[in-house]
Amino acid sequence: MQADYQQLKDRHQALQQRVREKQQMDYTMRDMLKNDYGVEKIPHSDVEARYVLYRLDHEQLTKSKKEATSWLAKLKTARENPDSKITSSRLDRGIEQVKFLINRIIELTRDMFKGPSL
Length: 118
Prior knowledge:
By secondary structure, the chain is mainly alpha-helical. It has four helices and no strands. α1 packs across α2 and α3 runs antiparallel to α4. The termini are far apart.
């Protein structure tokens, strides 16, 4: 029982750390856009999309299909937003990268569970 409690506590702390890191990246991106590029109003969808594009540009790829699907949704949301400050060609390129990443994750998962062929 104590071991289960400790494991749950560790998972909760790891989740809180990831949330703090994402918030910090959000604040950093907003600050950078505001101070370095003079963008005053930044749609939240743009901040999320820029975070995804940053991760793609720096090859900080995910191994989770769920997270990759979330990235795809964020990029598509920013693409559909008429007030987006991100060029549509950059968003389209990011969408294609994430689609490729999702397909790659699916292939790797399929290969892993397929096992040796007879």
